[in-house]
Amino acid sequence: MKAAIFNTLGSAEDVLVISDVEKPSLAHGEVLVRIHRSAVNPSDVKKRAGAFPDLLDDGFIIPHSDGAGVIEAVGRGVPASRVGERVWVYQAQFARRFGTAAKYVALPSNRAVNLPNSASFDDGACMGIPAMTAHRCIFADGAVTGKTILVTGGAGRVGHYAIQWAKHAGAQVIATASNPKATEHCFAAGADAVCPHGGEEFVQLISELTGGRGVDRVVDGEFGANLPVLLDVVREGVVIATYSSMHVPEPVLPFKRMMFLDLTLRMVLVYAMPELAKQAAAADISMYLDRGMLQHRIAHCLPMGQIAQAHQLIEQGGFYGAVVLDVENA
Questions:
Q1: Exposure of 37 by Cβ count < 10 A (0-12 exposed, 13-18 middle, 19+ buried)?
Q2: Residue 7 is part of a domain; what is its CATH number?
Q3: Could you write out the DSSP letters of every residue in 92-121?
Q4: Do 105 and 149 lie in a common domain?
Q5: What's the domain range around 81?
Q6: Is the pTM of this model over 0.90?
Q7: Are 308 and 265 in a shared domain?
Q8: What percent of the chain has pLDDT over 70?
Q9: Helices (H), the chain
Q10: 77-91: pLDDT as tens digits
């Protein structure tokens, strides 16, 4: 089968190639999915660039954790009725060598989730890391109905879904944005208010919107850089759920101030989520897709042969939405 692979770590243009590799065989409990779309996430790019030096110890890698397609065969222990089912898949290349940047992927049946007919394969490919991370950030610490949630970087991939989950659950949502275009994306996702990432206007607006009480929850995408200003706008008992800290990767915590806020800090990594949380997120995603209640943004759809360019787009940034590969027509 055709697949994108790398067998050395480095820049996308130097290491990613299209190759003919053996079609995967099925183990007990697995399904074989013919991939139509493969999504590129920042974690995929970091792996290929060298974030995990031992990644290639067992051989070449087919990248990408997220994708969507159709189940073509099932292994023992999986109902034959799943054959022909449209699915979105996640964790295809977590703790495994072979991901979705290939004509076929074999993976555990529970990692292939029903994709309603009303949703496109493009939509399905976006669900894994962004939508599941956002779901965990919003729902891990109890109901949010009637609460005020601050979503930093609301126009980002995770922030976009976090706004939607929170609004559907009955929360008031304040998002931060860095420019007018990002502000439009936040409002389109359902944000009640949008403000700058920091500064006096940020603090003043949140104080006005919350009657001086501060926000109940924070979904944050740049923890180390944002923490100092976040502490100016949260109330006692706040939960900060954060999924990234790229600019300040090893932040220093103001322990005393955080302690007197009775602050709960939750680190969210989709791969490390409890299995029950993954199942809850997957069930909600499929239900909301079926009801047409989630908005999606596909910024770029490239042929699989342009996988290097797709990785470069993620590295460069400057756009809103997902980058997906057309594997079906490769």
A1: buried
A2: 3.90.180.10
A3: TTSSSSB-SSBSEEEEEGGGEEE--TTS-H
A4: no
A5: 2-126+296-326
A6: yes
A7: no
A8: 100
A9: 12-15, 42-49, 121-125, 132-139, 157-168, 180-189, 200-209, 223-230, 255-260, 275-290, 307-316
A10: 999 999 999 999 999
